[in-house]
Amino acid sequence: MNPGTPPAPEERASATGLLRALALYIEARGRLLHIEGQEAGSRLSNLTGMFMLALTAFVIGWMLATPALVWIIAESNGWHWTHVALAGAGIHLFLGLLLLAGLKARLRGMQLFEESFNQFRRDREWLASNKNN
Predict the structure, then answer these.
(1) What pLDDT, on the 0 to 100 scale, is given for residue 16?
(2) CA distance 122 to 116
(3) How many CB atoms lie within 10 A of CB 118?
(4) Kind and range of the H or E element at 129?
(5) What is the C-alpha to C-alpha distance for residues 122 and 133, in angstroms, rounded to an integer?
(6) Which of 11, 37, 106, 132 qualifies as a cystine partner to 7, CB 3.0-4.6 A?
(7) What confidence tens digit (pLDDT) does each residue in 104-122 have?
(8) Do residues 62 and 54 touch, judged by C-beta distance below 8 A?
(9) Rounded Cα gap, residues 58 and 16, in angstroms
């Protein structure tokens, strides 16, 4: 094909067909992503709701059992109940700080969508190498 002459009808038809196939491919991938996103959101919201209910049940149960446990320990050892309650609070605060430190360390190293970003990086490298050819 000469740069000064218009493309032949066959070349225009093949380019149009390629663009149409590409658009249909992208549309299909977008629809699939949309459907899977809705399913994932529904599943995650159900799991989150169940987790919150379970956590609430555990917290309420622990709040009801703690005074009785403090009383039992204080009575069996002859200690004052405030000393037992303060020791229990100290143990819980120490465990909470340890868990927060572990959470902070995990959040620092966490990478979301790592494979997607790696795939985008590979795509950019492939496009750059094809431009040079």
Answers:
(1) 81
(2) 10
(3) 11
(4) helix 114-132
(5) 17
(6) 11
(7) 988 888 776 677 677 778 8
(8) no
(9) 62
**Spatial separation of the C-alpha atoms in residues 92 and 51, rounded to whole Å:** 21
Span 48-102, pLDDT tens digits = 999 999 999 999 999 999 999 999 999 999 999 999 999 999 999 999 999 999 9
Over the range 17-43, which residues count as b (16 or more CB within 10 Å of their CB) and which as e? eeeeeeeeeeeeeeeeeeeeeeeeeee
Instruction: Give me the residue label for tokens 């529904």.
Output: 42
In angstroms, rounded to a whole number, what is the distance separating the alpha carbons of residues 115 and 121? 10
The pLDDT value recorded for residue 102 is 92
| Angstrom distance (rounded) from CA 89 to CA 80 | 15
Q: How far apart are CA 87 and CA 97, in angstroms?
A: 15
Residue 85: exposed, middle, or buried by beta-carbon count in 10 A (0-12, 13-18, 19+)?
A: middle
Q: Which two tokens stand for residue 128?
A: 């750059």
